[in-house]
Structure formats: C-alpha cells, structure tokens
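Ticket #4471: structure export looks truncated?
Reporter: QA, pipeline team
Priority: medium

Steps to reproduce: submit the single chain below to the structure queue and open the exported record.
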Amino acid sequence: MTRVAVVTGAARGIGAATTLALTAQGWAVMAVDLAADDPALPYPMASEADLTAVVKEADRLAGRPGMVQAVAADVRDADALRACVEEAERQWGRLDAAIAAAGVIAGGAPLWEVPAEQEQTVLDVDLGGVLNLARAAVPALLRAPLPRAGRFLAVASAAATRGLPMLAAYCAAKAGVTGLIRALAVELGASGVTANAVSPGSTETSILAESARLYGLPTATAFAAQQPLGRLLDPAEVAAVLAFLASPASGGMTGAVVPVDAGLSL
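Actual output as written to the record:
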C-alpha cells in the first residue's frame, strides 16, 4: 500500500526535506508551494525551479517518476488547498498525512514599527496556512475507513515559547500553531487521526538566513552558539522526525509538540 501525503512549503527548507524523506520511504506526495516571490516580503521565496528540483530528486530517490506531484498554490488560498487534497485523493485514491511546513518571516523592528502588510503576511502564512490545510485535509483523513491512521502535522518553532525581539508576529503565529495542534488533537479524539507538531530550533533554511539579516548578523551560523549541540540543524533532521510522526508507528502520540532544536529549549 502506498501512503499519500500533502506537504506545503515543499520547494525548499524543511518542507522540501520532508517531501524527500517521505518519498524515500515509499510515500506519494503532493508537493505544494507558492513558488513565487511575495511582494510584502523583502527576501526571495522559493521558485518554480526549486520545486522542480525537489520533484527530480524525489524521482531519483523513489527509483521511478510520478511519486511526487508538484503544485504551485498559496496556503492563504483555502480553495487552492482543498483542490490539492482532492487531487491527491483522485490521483492516489487516499490521503494519509497532511504536513503544514510553509512559513515566512518578517520583522527586524519593534512590533509597532513593522509594516502592517509584513505582519499580516506572517500571520496569514504561518498560522492561517496551517488552519487552511487542516480545514482541507482533516475531512479527507476522516474519510478513511476504520481503523484509521491519519496524521495532521505542522511545523512550529522554538519561537512558540521564546520571546524573540523584533519577531513578534512570527512568535505569535508559531505559538498559535502549537495551540491549534493541541486543540485539534482533542477534537479528533479517538477517531484514529492524530495531530502533532515539531518545534525546530535554528535550522539552515532561508528563514534563518533572513533572521540573520534582520538581526544584522554576518551569517546564520551565529545562531549555532545558542544551541547546546553547538551547531545549526540540517532540515533533514527535522524532516526525519516529521516522517516518523507521519507513520503508523506514532499512533500513541497526539497533541505533542516535539522539540527538534539541538537543545535550544533546555
């Protein structure tokens, strides 16, 4: 049986690494990404070329084409995400997991000085995008016959529990994600569908590079010093935990926010 997932933010970073991790384990993946720049944000988003490269690498890992379907869609568009879920069901006959990994960052100034459109974009993508995916995917996960093993997963952040100066909207959005996951876990109850999140520390992604720029740091490697492991995380390390949480082996977990943070939360 081929298990099927929808992954947002799939063109780079943790979303891309998760797409590849699942594909390497035999999953079929609907890889969703905006794959275009956002005019409200001052740094480049992933591109269509990035998304295409993920599909190519997934084909290589799977040993055959067709295990990953790329879709350019905005997680702020609830109808677009619903269409992605429906297409996954149409193409592969089922949905086993939905993973909300799309994220952006903005700030670099006190809350009251951050441009309102940047603040709203962070809230709409980082929290609203998770809500939209849940609205689209959870009904599909619940359509599976009993006994179910559906998984709804989200990428939170150490920022959900740490007050990061000049990143107030990002902290608020990620704290919202953890609250959403806990509430959703209770709502799903004994349905067989679980809801969990990972909470990464400083990970080598474009978001961390932009964070370094916002803080006036020469490179993102400066963040490594705050983590007890003394290094940045690789996106694949976070993806490995997401792949476990997506699997039937995680059936005893729901409402969990798992730190994958190199010890940052200690």
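Status: closed, not a bug. The export was complete when the record was re-opened. Leaving a note from the reviewer for reference: The chain has a mean pLDDT of 97.
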